[in-house]
Amino acid sequence: MVVPSGPAFQYLKVKTHLREGIASGRWRPGERLPSEAELTEAFGVSRMTVNRALRELHQEGMVERVQGVGSFVAQLHRIASTLTVRDVHDEIAARGHQHEAQVHLLEEVAATEAQAAEFQLQPGARLFHSIIVHRDNGVAVQCEDRLVNPACAPDYQAQDFTQVTPTHYLLEVAPLSEARYTIEAQRPSPLEAKLLGMPRGEPCLVVRRCTLSLGQVVTVVRLVHPGGRWMLQGSFQA
Amino acid sequence: MVVPSGPAFQYLKVKTHLREGIASGRWRPGERLPSEAELTEAFGVSRMTVNRALRELHQEGMVERVQGVGSFVAQLHRIASTLTVRDVHDEIAARGHQHEAQVHLLEEVAATEAQAAEFQLQPGARLFHSIIVHRDNGVAVQCEDRLVNPACAPDYQAQDFTQVTPTHYLLEVAPLSEARYTIEAQRPSPLEAKLLGMPRGEPCLVVRRCTLSLGQVVTVVRLVHPGGRWMLQGSFQA
DNA sequence: CAGTGGTCTAGACCACTTG
DNA sequence: AAGTGGTCTAGACCACTGA
């Protein structure tokens, strides 16, 4: 026969079988799984199909594979979860709330030594600088303090950021290739506390993100969220 | 010919070509990419190879595919980054530092109504409760307040958590299948402030995580980190 | 209808590891 | 040498879309 019964999602059958065996503890972490040849025989499918199942489980971090040796249940010590850092506007809109943005500053500055180093530019090079406060149904939830590389977004200062967020605009003009970020708890700066309308002593969730496009640093942003008004959420499967 | 030159990682050539075209803006977000047939011809490879390249780009969130229509450059609005929440011990050890754990409490409690609901158990059901402080070279960096479902880890109370972290132990006895978490900034509770040796008013990074195994809630944990002593890091490619 | 992606096969050659 | 995974082919059938 050529194709026995058409697409029956055979690779999913194999994948599910292995996933359930791992989840149920039938195969313990570090233990060896059946070889591709064994699974090929057991399921009566081609090796490519078994290979895809195992490859995807590997990509999902559930299985480790060693050429010439075999496939093994991964040691799931780390919980690598997908944290979705979405555009504020989308996040607020998704809750059915009203998003407002207030531009408090939009200027051109000369890079300090530290800033120049981060942008891989010369000290004193021009940078755009913006400070924008985002509100959810009128409540200030984020203060966005951003530096932008003019080489990547020459028209940055001409945008109306009450209508389109900088995140959205920058993703349009400079396709994202890499991002690095840190998340920590801090007190707001005096200016941030004033702009967010919160006491100086209240904790804030601070996300700092550096975004690259084609190896160039496009923008570095500090996002300050009042502790009681904003929270990151995520989940992890498998 | 059967195989022209052995593994030359053809699917990577196709993948790289598309990835660079997207990153360089040659294909804009929403724009249509060449069909599998066109790529098959252009690269002189089989369709399976092209298919793998496109499928992986789709799995990475860079390409959207619609059956019967075509493949398109994804709208990269969301920045879905892989945040690695590792075991404290590993994280501290990875820096070459000394990890110490201090067990402040290890008891059995009756579930409150809210706790019972979260664990999908009856109010008053038994739960294990532990409070452990983790130190990095003697500095308290995390207060771990944890509830555990006895059905998943009956021997929880018999463990020596100065030697093996609860995270590590629980992953051994109850393979992880799903986790949900939130990250926010808060002040520590009076007890947490005391255990961590920090002022009440200092901000903390608080991670709350609910872990499931085989559809059962295994554990709910609150991880409190002094603001200046701990930070989450992550990065995102493509 | 033609074109697209989704899946699958039954082989193949190769690099690698272990006995 | 035998077994493993890594890659690849040249076909195939199918479901879906849009003109």
Automatic annotation (TrEMBL), chains A, B:
CDD domains: WHTH_GntR. SMART domains: HTH_GNTR, UTRA. Residues 8-76 form the HTH gntR-type domain. Signal peptide: none annotated. GO terms for molecular function: DNA binding; DNA-binding transcription factor activity. Keywords: DNA-binding, Transcription, Transcription regulation. It holds the Pfam family UTRA. InterPro entries: Bact_HTH_transcr_reg, Chorismate_lyase_/UTRA_dom_sf, His_ut_repres, Tscrpt_reg_HTH_GntR, UTRA, WH-like_DNA-bd_sf, WH_DNA-bd_sf. Transmembrane segments: none annotated. NCBIfam families: his_ut_repres. This is Histidine utilization repressor. It comes from Roseateles depolymerans.
